[in-house]
Specification:
Blueprint: E1 28-34, E2 37-44, E3 54-56, E4 65-71, H1 78-93, H2 100-121, E5 128-135, E6 142-148, E7 152-156, E8 165-166, H3 173-176, E9 202-207, E10 213-217, H4 219-222, H5 227-234, H6 240-253, E11 260-267, H7 274-280
Antiparallel strand pairs: 1-2, 2-11, 3-4, 4-5, 5-6, 6-9, 7-8, 7-10, 10-11
Helix pairs in contact: 1-2, 5-6
Length: about 280
Amino acid sequence: MSLMTPREPHLSPNAVCLTPDRSVDLRQSAFFERGAVEVAAATECGTRHSVNEDSYSALERSAPVYVVADGVGGGAMAAWTSRELVQRIHASLDDRVIDATSIKTALLDADRELRRRIARETAYSGAATVALCASVDDALTDWLIAWVGDCRVYRTRAPASTSAELLTCDDTYDHLGEHPPVGGSPNDPARMVGNGAVVSPNVASVRMRDGEMLVICSDGVHKHVGARDINATLRAHAPLSQCCERLVDLARSRGSEDDATLLVVHRKAPRRGRFASMLLG
């Protein structure tokens, strides 16, 4: 999708929290444990611009809802749009009963409101792609995933030599069987949040078993590393946050110039007691 403003536009004096958060311009990583799961994330600003236009959830939130959003490069207010999208999804879903309908409603409401807020500041269009996962049970085994655009969700399993399983299908013109606009590419996202292009957000159910991971990432990661690389890198014998940083480094080493972000939810395998290990050994 070709959007015409390469920088964040000048904002009106009445705009609220529309300036980009420059604290995430460079490399950033985070880690948090929640009962049976550990969560880690890493993001890094690309070389195409000075502001990171990706955004992701704060990991220590009260609700197990995790989001990655990618502000459309060249779009109006891309950095603000991705951050506002993450915040609006959490405002709609945190500490509430979550189902497919509530997730779709949250995304459609965000699409409408972001479009309205952007139009108040500039005549140019802006939008973000997004993917999320949300637990729907106390045991953190049953999850709903959702996406609009070309942010992706993978599931990794042991052993490290296997490939991660892609759980989403990019909303590109090619995959949707639609013709891109003049100047666009078949691989551009045809559905985005913030420009009124969302009709029915994608939602699917996933069960996460012990030892598995859900990996949410922007295209700055997945366009440059394959499913086997994702599984091998994240299942290395290292802290999860360090594994996330290594995956960003791998994407960079393979030519990624875009903002690169991933968030990983790992359902930890239960530790065996010494006696049980001796019996099984």
